[in-house]
Amino acid sequence: MAGPGARPSKDVQPKLRLDKWLFAARFFKNRELAAEVIESGHLRLNGQRCKKPGHGVAEGDTLTFPQGRAIRVIRVLALSDRRGPAQEAQLLYHDLAPTADAPLE
């Protein structure tokens, strides 16, 4: 078992708390709102319902959750526990939901 000063293993993917990442990516105004959505069971992580705000999210994960009247489907591209400017936050994810102005085929 590794102690607090141990180096992370190369095969272990870094993770971040789900509520912290949603706040850093600017989907919610604060972590409490993000935690409420998660705890109410309205968020899916890779297709599985997630009810723990402390659950780990990693690069490549897909999140599905309601935001206002829309359902957001996003893929996590990067981790950040710092809430930076909006332009930085947009680099953390890729929106997979179709846009309203895109033509349907």
TrEMBL record:
Keyword annotations of the record: RNA-binding
RNA-binding S4 domain residues: 16-78
PROSITE patterns membership: S4
Gene3D superfamilies listed in its UniProt record: RNA-binding S4 domain (3.10.290.10)
Pfam families in alphabetical order: S4
Record flagged with keyword RNA-binding: yes
SUPFAM superfamilies associated with the record: Alpha-L RNA-binding motif (SSF55174)
Full protein name: RNA-binding S4 domain-containing protein
